[in-house]
Design goal:
about 180 residues; alpha+beta; seven-stranded antiparallel sheet
Length: about 180
Amino acid sequence: MRRTRGAALLAVLALTTVVAGCGKTVPGTALPAGGTTSTGGGKINTNFDKLLRECEVVSNDDIAKTVGEGTYANPSFNGAVCMWDLSGGTAGSGMVTLSWYEEGSLANEKSNNDRLGYVTNDITVQGRRSLETHRPNDPDSCGVSAPAADTGIVGWWVNYRAGSSHGDPCEAARKLVELTLNLAR
């Protein structure tokens, strides 16, 4: 019995220590659900109904046409990035990825590419300075990033199956960025 009380006391002390250690003061002003932002005065969207809207900025059919005649683009993941699996047609199999970072910048993309050992070239897409990115020794994939129409950075990666017969992955990625910028205006 004494041993059980001791174990219970130790458990209570451990729980108290854990709970007390998790406390943290966060600076800022708390807002009620549906309240307004302090900077823009606009309502906060608490329905979260537009979280993955960027995954639909270019239709599956337009993605498929851009990467290869007769190709199918099937959505495979929607989250922090949007992905499509490619099959059939002149592109064969592969994957297309869209990233849209509201707080991103070309400088940050270039820095990350350098850190990863990728080759990055300056190009122009619709009159905007953009980046074309290659992985070393990988002629089957390419990424293009450009400033988004309003804020942030938008980027597309085209990854064809290694050694497959396909078009230029950089041309496809550039065209997908153009479609995104056209539709985002």
